[in-house]
Design a protein that fits this description.
Number of domains: 1
Order of helices and strands: EEHEEH
Structural class: alpha+beta
Shape: globular
Number of helices: 2
Distance between the termini: 25 Å
Radius of gyration: 11 Å
Strand content: 5-15%
Largest sheet: 2 strands, antiparallel
Number of strands: 4
Helix content: 10-25%
Mean pLDDT: 92
Length: 73
């Protein structure tokens, strides 16, 4: 995927910034889109507290944390 790394938006759920082209959801980062809707997640590679692939900063909302705690995959 050729990401437009100049287009950064804020996730509606976790409030992290992310590259708009890194997620299939318009207003959700790949992490939140994965846990809420089951879309493929980014294979995060953190460098300086951000994923170099999607720019997610590791934030997680209480709702996403609950989903992660019950995730069986």
């Amino acid at each position: 995927m050729d990401l437009n790394k100049s287009s950064i938006i804020v996730c509606d759920e976790c409030r992290s910034e992310f590259y708009v082209d890194s997620s299939v959801m318009k207003n959700l980062c790949p992490e939140c889109a994965h846990y809420i809707y089951g879309y493929e997640n980014c294979k995060h590679e953190f460098n300086n507290d951000r994923c170099s692939k999607c720019y997610w900063n590791g934030n997680s909302s209480d709702y996403i944390n609950r989903l992660k705690s019950t995730d069986k995959s």
